[in-house]
From TrEMBL:
Record organism: Shinella granuli
Catalytic activity, as annotated: D-glucarate = 5-dehydro-4-deoxy-D-glucarate + H2O
Residues spanning the membrane: none
Pfam families, per the entry: MR_MLE_C, MR_MLE_N
UniProt xrefs under InterPro entries: DgoD-like (IPR034593), Enolase-like_C_sf (IPR036849), Enolase-like_N (IPR029017), Enolase_C-like (IPR029065), Mandelate_racemase_C (IPR013342), Mandelate_racemase_N_dom (IPR013341)
GO-annotated molecular function: glucarate dehydratase activity
Name under which the protein is recorded: glucarate dehydratase
Length: 415
């Protein structure tokens, strides 16, 4: 039977609303996610789906520019694809890792559809039928349209955590932080940990702290039921110094995102848990390879979230399904969204888990009406500056940061 070859690629940027703007140490998501949906066509009529964060006209043009690399390529030949698109020396002059990830997703989707099997069967077979997630909690600005959804105080954060636990069944809770002064966030985080009882918690200031502040903060939370302490400071050496001064495991999704960094971390440990992101690592298969290295050297792993819609969430689920050493729940922004671009709408949590799709390929189908609707919305609203906070005009982040938002500032922000 003739195998398919790629004939074309299409990229469509969409923006999908969030319940409310999500604040983080480097800025904010301004009430929506901007994602680029990729469709890879073949000569046998199969279309593979991929997804990449960010986008707009520049991303669509960048994917179109890769068409000469892809036309005629066999989607089963993924190692050749990797070197075609992101040869490590050629990539000194470009940054195609995340684009390669979206195309790899689509190729795996094509392969699974062609063979009539789900992607997890192409990766060694599933170890679990559903993947568990932590509630992903943020400080939030009010929704621009309704004025609802603000999270600035401990009580507001706890209300959301308990509501998510009730509706979705989460038993682990992650706070994305680094927005307000550390002492304020310490009080909020401790209140959250008390409110969720025996559930585990995790704190992620996105590398906003100095090494000394990171150590001081660690001393203030070591008695809690922490899964891990994520990216408290920047750099392998900084993380190593923090690790030497706490008994908590340290996790990262920022400073170990390729195999060179992973090797360095094995030789001189700075991080205990590697958060594997199917976009940041360049695809599902690199994450599987990295997980095997972590298994060999007894490093922990979890599935990381970079702001997914349903297509990338499917890649996270197939990844989580096949990893024997996955013991931590994953991250997902997914419950912060109000809609999705896949048929059937947003996937559902049951007991804190999402079932792994079992249909051939990634197991999700693009909803053409919603793709068009959210593409039009993107064209209407445009992008937003991820590294800016609409509540702090003129502010920009530094590493480490010393200029925090004011937790008493309850102004209505026009953004």
């Amino acid at each position: 039977m003739k195998r398919p070859v790629i004939t074309d690629i299409r990229a469509t940027t969409v923006t999908v609303p969030l319940e409310a703007p999500l604040r983080h140490s480097n800025g904010a998501h301004w009430g929506r996610f901007v994602r680029t949906i990729v469709e890879v066509e073949t000569d046998v009529g199969l279309v593979g789906l991929g997804e990449m964060g960010g986008g707009g006209e520049s991303a669509e043009a960048a994917f179109r520019a890769l068409k000469p690399y892809l036309v005629g390529h066999d989607p089963f030949e993924l190692e050749q694809l990797r070197f075609k698109i992101c040869n490590p020396t050629a990539s000194l002059y470009n940054n195609r890792t995340q684009m390669h990830a979206a195309i790899e997703f689509a190729c795996l989707d094509i392969m699974g559809k062609f063979l009539g099997v789900p992607v997890y069967d192409l990766l060694g077979g599933k170890m679990r039928d559903a993947v568990g997630f932590a509630s992903y909690l943020f400080f939030r600005l009010p929704n621009k349209e309704t004025g609802a959804g603000e999270i600035r105080t401990a009580d507001q954060l706890i209300d959301q955590a308990l509501n998510l636990k009730k509706s979705h069944g989460f038993t682990a809770h992650k706070l994305k932080s680094g927005v307000f002064p550390p002492d304020y966030e310490l009080e909020v985080y401790r209140a959250l940990a008390k409110a969720v009882g025996t559930d585990s918690v995790r704190y992620d200031p996105n590398a906003a702290f100095t090494v000394e502040e990171a150590i001081r903060f660690a001393k203030g939370i070591e008695d809690l039921n922490n899964d891990y302490y994520e990216d408290p400071t920047w750099g392998l050496n900084g993380m190593r110094r923090v690790r030497e001064n706490t008994h908590m495991p340290l996790a990262t999704n920022t400073i170990v995102v390729n195999f060179e960094q992973l090797a360095t971390n094995v030789l001189a440990p700075a991080c205990d848990v590697i958060l594997l992101d199917t976009t940041f690592w360049g695809g599902i298969r690199p994450c599987v390879k990295a997980a095997a290295v972590c298994e060999t050297f007894q490093l922990g792993i979890a599935v990381h979230s970079s702001g997914e819609l349903g297509i990338q969430l499917a890649t996270m689920l197939h990844l989580g399904a096949v990893l024997p050493n996955l013991v931590f729940t994953g991250d997902a922004h997914y419950h912060q969204l109000v809609d999705d671009v896949i048929v059937g709408g947003p996937m559902r949590y049951v007991d804190g888990k999402i079932a792994v799709p079992t249909a051939p390929g990634l197991g999700v189908t693009l909803d053409r009406d919603k793709l068009g609707r959210y593409s039009d919305l993107y064209k209407s609203l445009g992008g937003y500056a991820y590294d800016r906070d609409p509540a702090r005009p003129g502010w920009f982040s530094t590493v480490p940061n010393t200029r925090w938002a004011d937790p008493a500032d309850d102004r209505i922000v026009d953004y």
